Hints:
Number of strands: 7
Structural class: alpha/beta
Radius of gyration: 16 Å
Order of helices and strands: HHEHEHEEEEHEH
Strand order of the largest sheet: 2-1-6-7
Amino acid sequence: MFPKIKSTIEQLSFDTISEERKQVLAPLVQFIQSKTNSGLAIRLNFICTHNSRRSHLSQVWAQTAAAYYNIKNVFCYSGGTEATALFPKVAETLTNSGFEIKVISKGDNPIYTIKFNTNDYPIIGFSKNYEDDFNPQSEFAAILTCSQADGGCPFIAGAEKRIPITFEDPKAFDDTPLQAEKYQERSLQIATELLYVFSQIKSL
């Protein structure tokens, strides 16, 4: 794992997660543990309305957390109820935490490669509908990262489990002096909570 990411992770504290929030995270811990116990692939699809901010941060940090705790067969995805574009501030925020990011396709919906380690396959980041062919069609957990998607998606075809884990939208601070600080704050909250989730998994 790139040293700056490792340093970022080591500065996080699970003490910042309330007991109430840990109860929100518990169904995801249970889903991952069940798959681990059965030796099955762990597919996590993080879903938000526009697949532009929180769902991408969650996808990236979940994949990184799995690698950090050496939990095998974890495949993380993201999607929206509509496709827009990965918001550039998200890529910038992740870069500041140590990720290596490249744009491999430009346009209205750029495609990014996001690496947390020299040898691991990069995460592919771009905005897409959660039902897009790029994402799993069955045997996955749907994790709703925003209340709008949670309310708007009572049923997600193919999902084995539907888990609402919602985060406040940093978009509220776009074009304000607090933008960079708030994106970093949200990214680190997501990182802390998903690292906590994977820290709870017992390998067989």
